Amino acid sequence: MYLKSKLLSVLLISCMVYAGVGCESLENDSQTVDLNTDITYDTTLDVKDVTTTESMPIQNPTVNITVEGDNLIHSSIYNQANARADYNGYDFSYAYERVEQLFTGDLNIMNQETLICNDEYPPADYPCFNSPVDLGNHMIDIGINVFSIANNHMIDMGADGLSACLDYWDSKEQYGILHYGAYRDESDMQNIVTTEVNGISFAFVAFTEYTNGLSLPTDSPLQIVYTSEMDRMQSQVELADELADVVVVSVHWGSKDTHEVDDYRRTLAQNFADWGANLIIGTHSHTVQSMEYITNKYGDEAFVFYSLGNFISAQSDNFNLVGLVGDLNVTKDLSSGSIIIDNIKARPVITHYGYGYSDVQVYPYFEYDDDLASQHGVHTAQSGNYHDFSMEVIDEILTQNVPSEFLYLE
Question: Bridge partners of 325?
């Protein structure tokens, strides 16, 4: 429209210029234009075609992960769940309802400390644990989607119990639930558990330091990898590294009831990183312990939680009642292929119960207070030496053992 109006203006000016000879001079001109005729105009500009291309920033994919400690189900926990279900099954919702809000990751990874034997075995307490299937079902319902089952209680019910446990977890694979750390046979163990989230692939392996003096029969095809088996661990981690961008190692290791990180575990964590691990999740001590970045032999960083402590339990010492939920981001740099682990938050959780281990419930730190702590059943526990409990005690446990740059109390 703009070009047509411009041409009309030029024609009118031309008529004015030729006014002395009359507009009929235009009619006699060989370039006569009939203004009442539709005209097709060439609007192509005779200029150099310049294309400006702005490079768009690469959007590196990121996955949010939470990691949880020992889900240690004593009889007081499953008995209260049974009572809340009117003794028809088990309702575990009360125990976990306050911490569901923490399971916001794309992947939420938990150490399932007690066996879940597909209801082929009745629930059992220390020293040989078994939990009802309703526990596993509830953990899935509230967002846990990755379970490590490599720990010192994994053969509490013998080889048949472990097989039944695998039956239960295998039945959940159709819902996208992953489990790792115990295997049907050697072939199953070499079939590393993997998944892909937001364009980042993950592989999972798990090891345990011991199984409480219990062992599988020599003729059993079932497979467990112990931390004393360095060659087998290395083979597993390196195979996982070939299959995925990110290797997650869950390891049940160290001594119980201590906050100290020994040289053995620091050395083993370094080995894991050198073999290809990106994230190392430590459990077993039932206490919170430190965490750190470690640099592998190629100069890349991995991250290790030496122990997350208990997620839930009915233990009787104050240091067993404070655990951690780790929250972190895993990003893949598409330009280099490198993996970045950052935005790490260690969120404390508190296991609370009343007199006689009644009403066991997990609280996030930011919902706990001195009034609750003063009512804690640990003050009247029948065993153990650490019965003092208050926010001061909790804060001392946390600040002395969790690096301040990772501790997140909100």
Answer: 68, 347
- pLDDT confidence tier of residue 54, bands split at 50, 70 and 90: low
Number of structural domains, the chain? Answer: 2
Is residue 5 located within the same domain as residue 154? Answer: no
Residues 22 and 107 in one domain: no
Q: State the CB neighbour count (10 A cutoff) for residue 228.
A: 10
pTM of the entire structure?
0.86
HSE-CB at 81 with a 13 A cutoff on CA atoms is: 23
In a domain, 29, yes or no: yes
Tokens of 75: 């009889």
- What range does the domain containing 396 cover? 62-401
Q: Are residues 318 and 181 in the same domain?
A: yes
| CA neighbor of 181 nearest in space, from 162, 159, 164 | 162
Contact 330, 245 (CB under 8 A): no
Both tokens of residue 370?
């001195």
List the structure tokens of 66.
């939470």
**Overall size of the chain counted in residues:** 410
On whether the CB atoms of residues 332 and 345 are closer than 8 A, the answer is no
SS3 of residue 332 by DSSP: strand
| Residue 380 phi, psi (nearest 5) | -115, 20
Asked if 88 and 132 touch (Cβ cutoff 8 Å), the reply is no
| Gyration radius (Cα) of the chain, Å | 33
Q: Are 4 and 133 in the same domain?
A: no
- Which CATH number characterizes residue 259's domain? 3.60.21.10
What phi and psi, each to the nearest 5 degrees, are found at residue 341?
-110, 120
Give residue 245's Cα distance to chain centre.
Answer: 15
Is residue 407 situated within a structural domain? no
For residue 240, being part of any structural domain is answered with yes
- Same structural domain for residues 204 and 251? yes
pLDDT in tens, 57-113: 779 999 999 999 999 999 999 999 999 999 999 999 999 999 999 999 999 999 999
Structure tokens at 261: 């990180």
Q: Same domain for 45 and 87?
A: no
β-pairing verdict for 301-305 and 279-283: parallel
Last residue of a domain, one of 53, 75, 91: 53
On whether residue 142 sits in a domain, the answer given is yes
For the chain, the 3-state helix, strand and coil shares in percent, each to the nearest 5, are: 30, 25, 45
